[in-house]
Amino acid sequence: xxxxxxxxxxxxxxxxxxxxxxxxxxxxxxxxxxxxxxxxxxxxxxxxxxxxxxxxxxxxxxxxxxxxxxxxxxxxxxxxxxxxxxxxxxxxxxxxxxxxxxxxxxxxxxxxxxxxxxxxxxxxxxxxxxxxxxxxxxxxxxxxxxxxxxxxxxxxxxxxxxxxxxxxxxxxxxxxxxxxxxxxxxxxxxxxxxxxxxxxxxxxxxxxxxxxxxxxxxxxxxxxxxxxxxxxxxxxxxxxxxxxxxxxxxxxxxxxxxxxxxxxxxxxxxxxxxxxxxxxxxxxxxxxxxxxxxxxxxxxxxxxxxxxxxxxxxxxxxxxxxxxxxxxxxxxxxxxxxxxxxxxxxxxxxxxxxxxxxxxxxxxxxxxxxxxxxxxxxxxxxxxxxxxxxxxxxxxxxxxxxxxxxxxxxxxxxxxxxxxxxxx
Amino acid sequence: xxxxxxxxxxxxxxxxxxxxxxxxxxxxxxxxxxxxxxxxxxxxxxxxxxxxxxxxxxxxxxxxxxxxxxxxxxxxxxxxxxxxxxxxxxxxxxxxxxxxxxxxxxxxxxxxxxxxxxxxxxxxxxxxxxxxxxxxxxxxxxxxxxxxxxxxxx
Lengths: 424, 154
Hints:
The complex is a heterodimer of chains A (424) and B (154). By secondary structure, chain A is an alpha+beta fold. In chain A, 38% of the residues lie in helices and 21% in strands.
């Protein structure tokens, strides 16, 4: 049996989502900003051509935005999430086995499709996704996942491929590896790339030709797996079920700078509650909770401060009440007055399945009561919407809420915000 | 609150269900409470309520909604304030109402193909048909499959 994978990747996904509902943005530079409009997190090709970099702070391009040379959007994750879902569902029509790799990437197992004309099948996939969702995608097809990644990158870059590249012939695979820089290979990070270049390995082909022992010695078995994948031997299988997350982080920049403990406490409590909700939805509990706070590193005249504190909870939990309790405790330990805080966050780790909790003999918390309370709270949230019921520590003022001055409507999820068709 | 009563079942008249099948069965909610009284004669005839979403949306993945402003399509039953259900997976064909992007705006018109030429027809004598030419920046965005119209605007 020969393996065969396709990697389908949405082109400039966030920017493309904005364009679906405003086609006048086609051909124009579009950027999407991070939470709180802090920095650039997505760019259309036109924005890339203007030299705007990933992570550029917004104030650096504010001038271009105000003169309408660049169209900026606050991130609209509700819209992007729904559009991603539509893309993935469209893709799952073409094979029963898909792995949603990220919000805009998906692996398709085409192992049973060797006899068909892969090139035309790939084009059918591409055309269908674009027709159904309006999102342009690129496809790379190859015998292994790592090679599919290589094919996808080239499909996007080469104007001849125009978004679809099938790599099944050894000669084509060799040419593709030759044209791929080693730092662009899936899983090779900056440090490894530097190291490999020092040893005269510059392209993916150089790497594929390296000796297995040498790679094992310097890059562990992970490197060997990659080596084999690039040589066409499939080692990475499709992960159709996403494994439960090992750590969950909820952190945001505040809409404005905060100095009072109460405001930071409310924000932090809300992030803790978000973490608890995520834990419950994946049916797990966490043992460690970490809280961090920081001032604005971009501000030159403010005093700078960063600190974090981790607390090991007596029993792993996913209850809002308990997580907020310990997160607040951690915050109290690190909070210093007279600073302008810009961001705080809550990270939960040591995550275990709900049914494997080790109880403490001296535990004073009525866990059953907490559990049923959380169930009721989740039920009310599902019925009446977010933040209708919450733990009091989360506060009501929400003076820390995010800034999103350039947010597009939720075109596909809120009836009040659907696009208008003009009939004049 | 309602109380439940154990109803004795004669096990040998029950069909064997294999568990794989059982897994995929969703049980309908019974129409009446189980009570000590006489069971509702309608319980055996329970069906799902009519699902409007299923009726209006053939292909959920490619279906979107937009709201109408203006009256250029009033004679085609498309009125100001209506909600359009649009299927992007359908190709425009002669006579179908389509949403298209024309001169920087979304607009809804009837798509016509006459003698190999494509047109966008309004449905209001005050407006003229538009012939689609090569150099026009026109894209059909999707095909209108339903018009949701409220009889009385509130």
